[in-house]
Write a structure and sequence with these properties.
Elements lengths: L1 H17 L6 E10 L6 E10 L5 E8 L5 E8 L2 E5 L2 E3 L3 E5 L5 E5 L9 E7 L3 E9 L4 H4 L11
Parallel strand pairs: 1-10
Antiparallel strand pairs: 1-2, 2-7, 2-8, 3-6, 3-9, 4-5, 4-8, 9-10
The chain binds copper (II) ion (CU).
Length: 153
């Protein structure tokens, strides 16, 4: 009988572990480029994937070795708006791109002319370090000129 309870206990423990829900964030294709619309500002684009079974949100970020004002932006009606978080749904993928969601580095204490290291802050996953490749211009690489909405990024 004792073994039965030991076994039962193990089963319950196992079930509890298996049910644990957590996000699993993966970032790819991060780039940083001078903003065509804002003086002394840079836009950051990337793809954030959540392979886990729980939602997570990007709530902030900073750049290693650089002091700047850092904001999360969306584009609404062709204008950039500051937002508090970017939700990354479970088993989902969010693309930060020109004319849409992006990160904004404003008034950095030094000019960005090469690759940078970003520390992204997620609600549940905590801090994740990502290297962003510096590019002069993203317009011609990412989409055709007429699709680029002015006033964004
Ligand atoms: Cu912006």
């Amino acid at each position: 009988m004792r073994w039965f309870f030991v076994l039962l206990g193990l089963l319950i423990l196992f079930a509890a572990c298996a049910k644990e829900e957590k996000p699993e964030i993966e970032v790819s294709g991060a780039i940083v480029a001078p903003s065509p619309m804002m003086q002394n500002a840079y836009s950051v684009f990337m793809i954030i994937e959540n392979k886990g079974n729980s939602d997570d949100s990007l709530i902030g970020f900073y750049v290693e070795g650089i002091n700047s004002k850092n904001e999360l932006h969306d584009v609404v009606g062709g204008r950039m708006v500051k937002i508090d978080k970017i939700k990354i749904p479970a088993k989902g993928k969010v693309e930060l791109k020109r004319g849409s969601l992006h990160l904004m580095i404003i008034n950095p204490d030094k000019k960005i002319t090469e690759d940078i290291v970003l520390v992204l802050k997620f609600e549940k996953s905590g801090e994740i370090k990502v290297k962003a490749k510096y590019v002069e211009q993203t317009g011609k690489m990412m989409m055709q000129e007429e699709e680029v909405q002015l006033g964004c990024g």
